[in-house]
Amino acid sequence: MLPVNFRSYRRKLAVYRQAFRSFLHKTEKNPPRGIDNLSPVVEKEVWKEVDCLSCANCCKKMTPTFTPRDLKRISAHFNQTPEEFRKQWLKKDRNKDLINKNEPCQFLNLEDNKCSIYAIRPADCASFPHLSKRKWKEYAHVHKQNIDYCPATFKMVEKIKAIVEA
Q1: Which of 18, 49, 69, 111 is the most exposed place for a label (fewest CB within 10 A)?
Q2: Beta-bridge partner residues of 100
Q3: pTM, 2 dp
Q4: CA distances from 11 to 2, 17, 23, 62, 67 (A)
Q5: What integer pLDDT is reported at residue 130 of this predicted model?
Q6: 3-class DSSP assignment, residue 19
Q7: 10-residue averages of pLDDT along the chain (166 residues)
Q8: Which residues of 115-154 are buried (b: 16+ CB within 10 A; e: fewer)?
Q9: 50 to each of 37, 47, 80, how far by Cα in Å?
């Protein structure tokens, strides 16, 4: 695993962002045959190349959606009611979903990029960046957003695009 080089990532993003977004849009509408089977294989390759702890951009620039189960579990950890926890840390977004009030995430240790509630983190965090979570066409729109923040998503789209267009 290699640490994330943000300078290199931003340069690549500037060059390839539009092409990757076009690829994702096109394949979301008309998924190439076998792409759903390709994603889990490529995901394994990606995790050999990307070290999340050297990045933590998801925790610094994004926020998870907190489910009622997340709220109950995490608030209990802090000996708070779900309502107390919500008032202290969360807000509703335009979709009425509960998200963090602040960036970076209040649970991110900025010295080592580790989550202070890792064992009980929100389900959204646990499954991020959703590389092979569902069928490609159901998640391509999420990858379009995540390539701007997540080097692992960028790397996955880069590899899948190369394979599909070869």
Answers
A1: 111
A2: 90
A3: 0.90
A4: 17, 10, 19, 20, 35
A5: 86
A6: helix
A7: 86 96 95 92 93 93 96 97 97 96 96 96 93 86 94 96 94
A8: bebeeebbebbeebbebbeeebeebbebbbebbebbbbbb
A9: 21, 5, 36
